[in-house]
Design brief:
The protein starts with a strand and ends with a strand. Helices cover 29% and strands 32% of the residues. It is globular and about 40 Å long. It is of the alpha+beta class.
Length: 176
């Protein structure tokens, strides 16, 4: 049974375990995400989103299969992106952060399902302008977002979440 809901404190170990499995995949060369263990994402990443009430989880087969933060907070690096909709009112922009899918559930539609939830959630909150980002190295995420109709507005070179030399791909979509 599948369910996407706001996270609760008991979900944190499962979310952190997904971070760890993704980082292990990266370290072994089986995946390229652009994250660094101990830098980003960490347990504190999940705890901060939980405390803010912006952390969501997707459950499958009785376990957390995916998680992400959804809010209106545009990271400072977005100011340097050449957005297609640069005049979108801030209060109408929803942002998806740190979407993670457990490698055990890869290729099973969890990412697509979570993005569809994000879009529905954003519209319900009066936010037709959607933004997100990923590391340019993360070609799997870039393919997923392109398939789901997201436009790559540009790449911003930066230090992102403590990770140096990131080529931050800024993506957007208008649901109008």
């Amino acid at each position: 049974m599948e369910n996407i809901r706001k996270a609760v404190p008991e979900d944190i170990p499962g979310i952190v375990a997904i971070y760890d499995r993704i980082l292990t995949e990266e370290e072994s060369g089986r995946a390229v995400v652009g994250w660094i263990r101990g830098v980003y994402p960490t347990r504190q990443t999940a705890l901060d989103a939980l405390e803010a009430g912006t952390l969501f989880v997707l459950e499958r087969e009785g376990v957390i299969a995916a998680a992400a933060k959804i809010d209106r907070n545009q990271v400072p690096e977005y100011a340097d992106a050449p957005w297609r909709y640069p005049d979108a009112p801030d209060e109408q922009v929803m942002v998806l952060h740190t979407l993670v899918v457990d490698p055990a559930f890869a290729g099973r539609g969890c990412g697509s399902e979570f993005v569809r939830f994000y879009e529905d959630y954003a519209l319900a909150q009066g936010c037709p302008y959607l933004r997100m980002d990923t590391n340019a190295k993360n070609t799997a995420a870039r393919r997923l977002y392109a398939r789901l109709g997201y436009w790559e507005s540009g790449i911003v070179p930066c230090v992102f979440n403590g990770i140096p030399d990131v080529q931050l791909v800024c993506l957007e979509k208008f649901l109008g």
